[in-house]
Design brief:
Helices cover 43% and strands 16% of the residues. By secondary structure, the protein is of the alpha+beta class. The chain has one domain. Strands 1-3-2-5-4 form a 5-stranded antiparallel sheet, with helices on both faces. Helix 1 crosses helix 5 and helix 5 runs parallel beside helix 7.
């Protein structure tokens, strides 16, 4: 696991817990896209204005792509932060790939997650990772999440949405809004494949 840390309001163990869900979501999406050339991503959390909190590697991106994917995981939320009227980086993406401005970042309102939410939405070992003494493990704040490294921005976004859906951080209504903004036709495929797992966290693969 590779991590870059800047000033981050989220404690390290919370970032690590989200990262674990990103790893699981990435593996699921890789199965669906079945593209041997794609094996890993970089993902980031940023403030609502695009200030980078953390950049992490999930999976094993090709060595020759590391700087590229890492750079996009920073560029996407930075650009989105400059467009407060937008919910996604897709809305300011450039159709010319040479411009290097892609979709794959989206805004969310990071809610407090309580112990009760853990029992409902997360795996049993969430408390062991985060600590039973904390009644609210995430603070209530605007956040941008970005993923970079798959063949399409819709694939990148699906990794982030799947991880956060399983964590209980975003709802189906939130995802519906993001889909309407981006036209992400890949998410319904992801949802159809993994809805049972999302409804029954005890079935999450370890």
């Amino acid at each position: 696991m590779s991590i870059q840390r800047f000033f981050c309001p989220f404690p390290a163990q919370q970032i690590a817990f989200v990262h674990e869900q990103v790893e699981i979501a990435l593996n699921d999406v890789l199965v669906l896209i079945d593209d041997p050339s794609r094996s890993g991503v970089y993902w980031s959390l940023s403030s609502g204005t695009g200030r980078i909190y953390s950049v992490m590697m999930a999976g094993e991106p090709p060595d020759e792509k590391v700087l590229r994917y890492n750079g996009f995981a920073v560029e996407k939320p930075t650009r989105l932060g400059q467009h407060p009227e937008h919910l996604t980086s897709d809305e300011s993406a450039d159709p010319d790939p040479e411009a290097g401005k892609f979709g794959g970042a989206f805004r969310l309102h990071w809610p407090p997650i309580t112990e009760e939410d853990h029992e409902k939405n997360m795996r049993d070992r969430a408390q062991a990772i985060i600590g039973e003494a904390q009644s609210s493990v995430f603070t209530d704040r605007p956040v941008i999440m970005a993923v970079s490294g798959l063949s399409l921005a819709h694939h990148d976004s699906a990794v982030g949405m799947l991880a956060l859906k399983r964590l209980g951080v975003i709802t189906e209504d939130d995802i519906g809004t993001l889909i309407r903004r981006t036209g992400n036709d890949f998410w319904p495929i992801v949802y159809d494949e993994y809805t049972t797992i999302m409804d029954h966290p005890e079935l999450f693969r370890r």
